[in-house]
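New to this. Help decode both lines:
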Amino acid sequence: MFATRHMDSASDFSSVVLVASLGGMDAFGAVVAGLPTWFAVPVVVVQHRPLTFQPDALAAALARRTGLTVRVAENGTTAHQPGVTVVPGSTAATIDAEGLWRLQRASPDLGAGDALLMSSAEVGRTIAVILTGYQADGSRGCRAVKTRGGRVLVQDPTGARAPSMPANAIATGCADFVLPLHRIPTALLALTTAPGAADLFTVPLPPWARLSS
């Protein structure tokens, strides 16, 4: 855990969105545990999981891993609070033009990670972090993030409990960095706090990149 520190400069990014499925609780915990209590960019986590009664188990687990404030997203409240916001299970969470949460039942046609990333990219420069999980949720979202000036970090599939989601994100050609899990917090700190890092640390799209699904 890091000591408290006052941050004078605003980040170029409006939010960090962590997306995972199988193995997500451990992966989220590793990322938020590596962030200092003064980390000013809002962090949102979304995982494929069933809807549970309060208290939210994922939120409770993350609160034990970080000194950042942890809360559960609520419909109609601001989506840009500092700390960690957890999307409820079986929920499609999007951010509207006023920066407010809009929550509805998850749809089989659009992954919860894609829905959140696509809406977040529309309202502000976003850092997408695609973590362990099956299938391809997050791939459409990271395309939206990349084309709107955001950055895409992907967990190295070789170290993921379930490699499909990271591998599919990498296959889009939109990943700026593919990193071991323990390196992701350092990358987030560099991107959000180092002057000029947002523009310095970016990877041009390769000619084979797929920006539409």
Summary: Residues 78 and 100 are 4 Å apart (CA to CA). Helices lie at 24-33, 57-63, 112-123, 139-147, 164-171, 184-193, 197-200. The chain has one domain: 17-195. Strands lie at 15-20, 43-47, 70-72, 84-86, 91-95, 101-105, 126-130, 151-155, 177-179.
